[in-house]
Amino acid sequence: MLKKRLILLGAPGVGKGTQAKRLKKEFQWAHISTGDMLREAVKDKTSLGMKAKSFMEKGDLVPDDLIIQLVGERLNRNDCQPGFMLDGFPRTVIQAEKLDELLESINEKIDDVVSIEVENKIIINRLSKRLVCDQCGKVADPDRALQADGSCPYCEGNLIRRKDDEPETVKRRLEVYENRTRSLIQYYQGRGLLRKVDGLGNLDEVYQRICVALETA
Ligand code: AMP
After folding, report:
1. What is the pLDDT of residues 46-64, one digit of tens each?
2. Residues 102-136: pLDDT tens digits?
3. Atom 5 of ligand 1, nearest CA residue
4. Which fold has domain 4-119+174-213?
5. Ligand 1 centroid distance, CA of 164 (Å)
6. Is 67 in contact with 97 (CB distance < 8 Å)?
7. What pTM did the predictor assign?
8. Which of 22, 88, 97, 149 is 20 to 30 A from 183 (CA-CA)?
C-alpha cells in the first residue's frame, strides 16, 4: 500500500475536505481536518471548544498553541500509520515550524504539499451556496439534487449554512488566508514539496489532477 503524508493547502472553499474524503477512500490515509475537529469540540462544549468558538465565528484563527496540541495528539493515533492528510493545518508559519518538530519527534515527515488553487470570486460564490448537515457534518454535494424535504441525503439531518460561510465572515477568512497562510506556499516551495493543482472543475477532474501531481495516477 502506498504511504503518503500530505498537507492540503488552499483557501477556505477550494475543496480540500472533499478531495481528502475521496483520497481516504482510495488510499486509506487518515483525514485530519482541524476545522472538523474544532467544530466537534464546539458542539460537545469541551474546554477546547469553548476557547475556540468565538475565533471561529468571526473567521479568525484559533491560537496556535491550542491547534498544535490538538494535532500533536491526533498524529499519534494508529489510523495515521498508512499515511495522513492534514486539511486546514498548518495555517501559520509558527504552526508549520511546530509541525516539523512534531513529525521529527515521531520519525515522520511530509512527502508532498498539495496547494489547491481557485480564484477568490469563485470561492465566494461556492461558499454562498454550500450547505452542511447539522448532524453528520457532511457537505451536501452541489452536483446532486437535494432531498425533497431539504434534509441530508446521508443521515436525514438538517442542511444548514455554516455560520462562518456567511458572506462577511467568508471575506474575513479569505483575508486571514492571504495575511497568515499564503506565505506557506513559499515555505514548502523552498523545500521542494509543493505541488500546485488547479481547483476549478468538478470533483473527479480535480481529483485526477491531484493524483497526477502525487504521481499516484
Ligand atoms: P476550516 O473548516 O478548515 O475552514 O476551519 C474553520 C475554522 O476553524 C477556521 O476559520 C478557524 O477559525 C479554525 N481553524 C481551523 N484550522 C485552524 C488552524 N490550523 N489554525 C487556526 N485556526 C484554525
Report:
1. 999 999 999 999 999 999 9
2. 999 999 999 999 999 999 999 999 998 889 898 88
3. 35
4. Rossmann fold (3.40.50)
5. 10
6. no
7. 0.93
8. 22
